[in-house]
Design a protein that fits this description.
heterodimer, A: alpha+beta, Aldehyde Oxidoreductase, domain 3, Aldehyde Oxidoreductase, domain 4, 3 domains, 7-stranded mixed sheet, 5-stranded mixed sheet, 19 helices, B: alpha+beta, Ubiquitin-like (UB roll), DNA polymerase, domain 1, 2 domains, 5 helices, 16% strand, disordered C terminus
Amino acid sequence: MTAPLDTAPSGTGIGKAVRRREDQRFLTGRGTYTEDINRPGQLHAYILRSPHAHARINGIDTSAAREAPGVVAIFTGADMAADKVGSLPCGWQIHNKDGTPMAEPPHPPLVTDTVRHVGDQVAVVIAETKNQAKDAAELIQVDYEPLPAVVSTADADAPDQPQVHPNAPNNVCYDWHLGDKAAVDAAFARAAHVTTLDLVNNRLVPNAMEPRAYIGEYEPSTGDYTLYTTSQNPHVIRLLMGAFVLSIPEHKLRVVAPDVGGGFGSKIYHYAEEAIVTWASRKLGRPIKRVAERSESFLSDAHGRDHVTRAELALDKDGRFLGLRVATKANMGAYLSTFAPAIPTYLYGTLLAGQYATPAIYVEVKALFTHTVPVDAYRGAGRPEACYLLERIVDVAARETGIDRAELRRRNLIRPEQMPYATPVALTYDSGNFPRILERALELADYKGFAARKAESARRGKLRGLGLCSYIEACGIAPSNVAGALGARAGLYESAEVRFHPTGSVTVFTGTHSHGQSHETTFAQIVAEKLGVPIENVDIVHGDTAKVPMGMGTYGSRSLPVGGSAIVKAVDKVVAKARKIAAHMMEAAEADIEFKDGRFSVAGTDKSVGIADVALTAYVPHNYPLEELEPGLDEKAFYDPKNFTFPNGTQISEVEIDPETGVVEIASFIAVDDFGRIVNPMVVEGQVHGGVVQGIGQALYENCVYDPESGQLVTGSFMDYCMPRADDVPSFTVQTDETSPCTHNPLGVKGCGEAGAIGGSACIMNAVVDALSEHGIRHIDMPATPNRVWQAIQAARVPVAAE
Amino acid sequence: MPITVSLSVNGRPVTKEVEGRTLLVQLLREHLGLTGTHVGCDTSQCGACVVHVDGKSVKSCTMLAAQAQGASVTTIEGLAAPDGTLHPMQAAFREHHGLQCGFCTPGMVMSAVDLLQHNPSPSETEVREWLEGNICRCTGYHNIVKAVLSCAETMKSGAKAPAAAAE
């Protein structure tokens, strides 16, 4: 059934638009974000950052700063090195074409002798108040010897460029490839038409609204450390920081990620500041708090995207895709952030089939170091880059071949009867009905009526364009064995614990983390329905390694497909045990016990017992099969997915451009998405809206710019980096299609967190270029700012004027 | 030099000695423990810190605490009725899923409440233009706009806002 999302509140089970349980605290100012926490006796840290993109440090004079009011300590990289503090580790190893491993330079939390990007950490000042720490930092004299810097992705591997690391010649981190080169060459040899497109996927700053914040705390009497952190995955931070950086065993390190104000990928990674405050808390014996200012966030949160690509598509005379060849340079920034190497490879190259049955694909990716902030996953992570490339080149090919762009897609889509479908780039799609969704979207957007709308816009002097984008993503990261074979240095399962309390309420512990995703509501819906208990009796706990079993956190739209599946597995274990207890209570054979709506009954009789009563019996085991069963009703599960999930959909937008000003206005945006089964349509719709606006942001507004000479970040604040605002975007029409559930997880769910962002930028840019095509414009790079659009129109007009 | 500031916050008189450079948002968060008001930027762009000063929405990071001398300030903590009944704007945000991570929410709600004080029947365009100074990275604004429009309807149809403590 394809239907508009029903967001009416009725019932609390799976599929219902249950209003969020998180909202009461957030709407009344009672949320607890890291900055809201204050520990007794805490000190405040301020990080002194490099003003240079690349410089040698010949000396650091902290003497005046040490005398400043309130200063307790100042530490530099030398102090951390003396304590044998380790390098911030990278969680993924990619191999070069020749099988050798990538270059993996050290990443010290505080630098020792060289700074490699504006914002690199040079020293930490710790004082009684935030202002005192910041004031004292200004008194530190650093003797910098500035060195030439390279920031450009396109040129970083040229032989004459400044070198970022001594062990990465020509700034190459790795030179990777995937696919059958010979088959692709053969496909191009027999092509009737080849479309070639050069494009840039612009660099973005994730900009979660809550700046990163940390409190490190050490208890000398026990040797226990606690880190409060704005993290999407506290267990991963405990593992990385504990094992690799500070040598703290896990039983002595608790990591708490309380309410977190958005992440979008940027709060996955283990950041230097986490190690600095934790390490310094032991040195000083007092809790140490550090909260970033937004300007620091721009200079220190991992950025996203930043690809330069040449793509070629080979088509036969009927417009069938024969082969795709892609060569990409990807910017890693100055150091390898936690997931960075995996983003332009296994989350990008593997997605280049898209929704199409292209038989031969070959992709080469060169990852390059530059003197810029590290680049890592940002909402969609690799998949928006793949989608943008593919959907842009398909549109250009349609224009070049004269085949209608919807028809060209239609001819090449993977058919539902081909599922499961093995792509030539290592993935196997388990489910999806791409043609059905395309047709539904075309109908919803009134594709046929576009010409009339375009004519109407033209009468008002406006250029109207329509953009079509059929995206697919690999989500629910990931089967651990597959990830391991591809270079992951960790498992990617998820954990859950379902704890029945004696009087019938339930606490669920999940290793995922909610920072806007609404798990406290949606996970409770699942548990309440499966256990047949009122949703009010179910609480969800996340974000604390002292409470929750080892889990991998939230990213890659994995919380529901992986974390939700772990919860279902734990619920099944609870029910299985409760069934045995119920059989004993009712003196029946276990095989005769049925469970429905929270009650166990003996088949064919009127005997039944509620699950809450079973829980009480489990904890007060006076009449209990103690020989066969342990008391208690508290089950844990780890779920490792069998495959990725493959959310997919089609988005269609229309834009109007004023050719006199270059201003692009979005007239409409619709999306039809296949996320498998939907747990809460209201939450899903909200996730799509937010993702789409991040896609629109990239397409029209956002751009992270470094000065090519100085390596300075030019767009270092919300004054310079254009975030999409309420009056920049329209309202949306979002529909879902639940007819192709995921085939390999117990809920049939695919994940919805990234979809909007994956298709959004391609969808808008296809519309923009469509509008500009009447001026003969074939492509412009993002963001399509008024200036860039106006310039493109003027450039296109010149030859006409000259005739 | 420390200065003494006296003002009313959520209907309660407070007097605090603070550094002269203390911003109103710092007074609220760090001296009064009212952490519902958030700081999302350092250029007065994001609006996470919006509170009401003498009934008008103000970015509390753009104002010194000293400038609030004698003023009546309402924060997100003071918006609901004393019995806990949510202000219609808070209720509308919940009903229409106008928040995800919750970080921009206090500023967004305070700003939206002030909009309806100025314009009880805003159009969608007017809502979007008014909220231009509040950045949200999660919701794409769609449901925020829906919530504000719905709240306007509710308030017009007679549901009274609970008397916010200081307004």
